Structures are given as C-alpha cells and as structure tokens.
Amino acid sequence: MERPAISENSAGWMACVWISFSMSVGLTAAGIYRMPADLWIKGYMLMGLMFTVGSCFTLSKTLRDNHEARKLINRVSEAKTERILHDFEMKDTRIAA
Fold first, then answer.
1. Can you give the pLDDT of all 97 residues of the chain as single tens digits?
2. How far apart are CA 69 and CA 30, in angstroms?
3. Is 5 helix (H, G, I), strand (E, B) or coil?
C-alpha cells in the first residue's frame, strides 16, 4: 500500500498568510488605538481582538486535528480491507491448487 505524500505549502503562500495575518491584527489594533473613546473602551476592544485571534487559532488547530484523525482512521480501515482481500485471495489459490 502506498502512503500518500505529504504536501507542504509554498514559501510564497506562507509569506502571504503571515503578512495577511499581521496586517489584519496590526491594523485592527491601530484602529482601536486611534479610536476616539475612553481607555477602558479601547481595552475592552483590544481584549475582544485578542480573544478572537486566540479562538481562530484554536478552531483551525481543532479542524486540522479532526481532519488528520479521519485520514488515519481511513488508512487503518484501508489496511484492514486490503488484509481481508489478501487473505481471501490466498484462500482461493489454495482451494484451486
């Protein structure tokens, strides 16, 4: 059974992702800083921004872990199926001989 190749993201894609993430957090934080509001309101907004960023990381990690677990379960299931088919084929060749 062939193992699927692990595909890695290109350096350009990784740069795009990190630049986009940095710009979105940085510009939102700058907007909160420049907002004409009291300090406690800005603090509340910043806390919300940080909670949102943390939740996004947690969500993406959980989705990735679930996807990886399904891939592993499918590989184990395929290996069991191949073993059953192999045993069945070997039994047929012994009966025919």
1. 455 556 788 999 899 999 999 999 999 999 999 999 999 999 999 999 999 999 999 999 999 888 888 777 777 777 778 788 777 777 766 665 5
2. 39
3. coil
pTM given for the model? 0.60
Distance CA 44, CA 32 (A): 10
A 10 A CB-CB count for 28 gives 16
3-class state of residue 38 by DSSP:
coil
Distance CA 22, CA 12 (A): 15
Residue type, 31: G
CA distance 95 to 93: 5
Task: Write down the domain spans for the chain.
Answer: 11-96
